[in-house]
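Reminder to self: tokens first, then the designed residues, so the page reads top to bottom the way the pipeline ran.
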């Protein structure tokens, strides 16, 4: 009851189903309004659900921490290894390219050994990669650590949304799923803060106008602190259940698997009838997992549309350059005229805070307004802000203006595209295609992010920040059509109900559905 009271205080209405069971829509009605139908009462174990989702989401905190801390650690790496601009781009961008590779194996691992064990694989890769980077004696070893960490990131971006969507009830799935992106943004902010503290205590790198009195230890401490997140996940793993949908999806699933799945669902739903109904719905959709070929080129037309929407969500989220801004916030601020080291570090923290805070509003409103409303508002407002950034650099406006606009960029991204691209993709893909589909969702997302991050400095240096942000403003404007026309609403619906509704979609190609 205390948990429910806190969530009500955050603004969640009774229709979100914290006390009742599912709230489903009888048609969409007006935008942002609900059309609930009666459902059997079921009191979810919210404390347990929040614990499970937070533990699974901490795998994403490692990527967030890396994004935040690299803004400061890069200066120390540059001094110690004498990095060129291209090598700095490789260090930053390689993580996302390697995450794309990790995504290609993530779905197969998740289907083969289960969702829970795959989370353990992520934690192990994070710990190994972080240790290699923090202790790296050479640039080659540093890159090797990035390779291992990148593989872990790719796998976590596949398994995290899958596991969360499969373990949470429909009426609170949006709220709880937003914790995954909150974890990324919390990691970013923690990375900025740790970087600031290490620089203040140990001294900054010479390339950033400081004096490193730690003998190069400062950036290694920054990287090493990142091991805290996978260690926490490893500790929590003993309390995490297996996904009941995976247990029923297995080709070898028998009475024992069904009993385990039923026990897990009952521990969450706290209702015998709701548990039995859920198992029947899952059984109706569980036809075994498909391979890569079917995920890339489905035989049925409605599946091509469905996979195209999921892949489009992954593509458009990163093509607007949001992650490059986080990695190179200090460089953009420096080019805007903010030369003082402390001011740049504080600017980084403001950007990180602006990216995190909107997530709490989104968390409270998502199961009321829906995914599509947030995605549309986010896409339109981002386009305006990126255009304003282009103007601010072109007219050489004060650095304070650039800080405000960078914060606005991150805030509008977190209002929709950040938290709901992955979860909406995992919701629309049917159970049999989910692991393979999310493999390519993550591959596309991380590959595009890596390409944007790798090219950001060289492109901005070549054409100037004004034209750089103008290009992304135009790209963001193009993306608005996709969010307005192609993305379905999934709030308050079971995964099996969403799959049934997607069958009515038009026969089309994957590429047309993405655009």
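Designed residues (515 positions):
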């Amino acid at each position: 009851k205390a948990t429910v009271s806190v969530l009500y205080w955050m603004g969640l209405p009774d229709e979100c189903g914290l006390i009742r069971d599912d709230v489903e829509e009888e048609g969409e009605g007006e935008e942002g309004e609900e059309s609930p139908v009666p459902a059997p009462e079921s009191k979810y174990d919210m404390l347990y659900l929040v614990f499970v989702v937070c533990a699974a989401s901490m795998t994403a905190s490692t990527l967030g921490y890396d994004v935040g801390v690299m803004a400061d650690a890069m200066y120390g790496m540059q001094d110690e290894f004498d990095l060129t601009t291209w090598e700095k781009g490789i260090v930053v961008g390689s993580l996302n390219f390697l995450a794309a590779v990790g995504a290609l194996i993530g779905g197969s691992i998740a289907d083969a050994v289960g969702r829970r064990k795959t989370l353990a694989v992520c934690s192990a890769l994070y710990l190994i990669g972080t240790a290699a980077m923090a202790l790296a004696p050479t640039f080659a070893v540093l890159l090797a650590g990035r390779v291992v960490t990148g593989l872990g990131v790719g796998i976590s971006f596949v398994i995290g949304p899958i596991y969360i969507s499969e373990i949470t009830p429909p009426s609170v799935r949006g709220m709880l799923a937003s914790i995954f992106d909150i974890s990324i943004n919390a990691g970013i902010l923690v990375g900025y803060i740790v970087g600031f503290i290490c620089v203040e205590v140990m001294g900054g790198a010479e390339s950033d106008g400081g004096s490193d009195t730690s003998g190069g230890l400062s950036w290694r401490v920054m990287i090493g602190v990142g091991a805290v997140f996978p260690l926490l996940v490893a500790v929590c793993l003993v309390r995490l259940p297996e996904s009941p949908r995976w247990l029923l999806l297995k080709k070898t699933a028998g009475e024992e698997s069904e009993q385990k799945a039923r026990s897990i669902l009952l521990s969450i739903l706290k209702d015998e009838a709701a548990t039995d109904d859920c198992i029947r719905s899952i059984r109706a959709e569980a036809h075994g997992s498909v391979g890569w070929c079917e995920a890339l080129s489905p035989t049925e037309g409605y599946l091509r549309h469905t996979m195209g929407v999921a892949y489009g969500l992954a593509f458009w989220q990163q093509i607007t350059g949001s992650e490059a801004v986080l990695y190179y916030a200090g460089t953009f601020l420096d080019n805007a005229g903010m030369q003082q080291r402390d001011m740049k570090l504080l600017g980084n923290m403001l950007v990180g805070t602006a990216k995190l805070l909107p997530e709490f509003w989104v968390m409270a409103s998502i199961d009321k307004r829906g995914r599509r409303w947030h995605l549309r508002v986010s896409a339109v407002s981002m386009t305006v802000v990126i255009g304003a950034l282009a103007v601010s650099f072109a007219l050489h406006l004060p650095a304070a203006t650039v800080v405000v606009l960078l914060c606005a960029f991150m805030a509008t991204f977190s209002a929709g595209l950040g938290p709901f691209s992955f979860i909406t993709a995992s919701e629309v893909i049917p159970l049999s295609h989910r692991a393979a589909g999310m493999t390519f969702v993550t591959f596309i997302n991380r590959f595009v992010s890596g390409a944007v991050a790798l090219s950001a400095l060289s492109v901005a240096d070549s054409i100037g920040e004004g034209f750089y942000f103008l290009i992304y403003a135009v790209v963001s404007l193009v993306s608005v059509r996709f969010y307005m026309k192609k993305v379905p609403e999934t709030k308050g619906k079971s995964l099996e109900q969403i799959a049934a509704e997607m069958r009515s979609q038009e026969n089309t190609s994957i590429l047309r559905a993405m655009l």
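The two ends are 45 Å apart (CA to CA).
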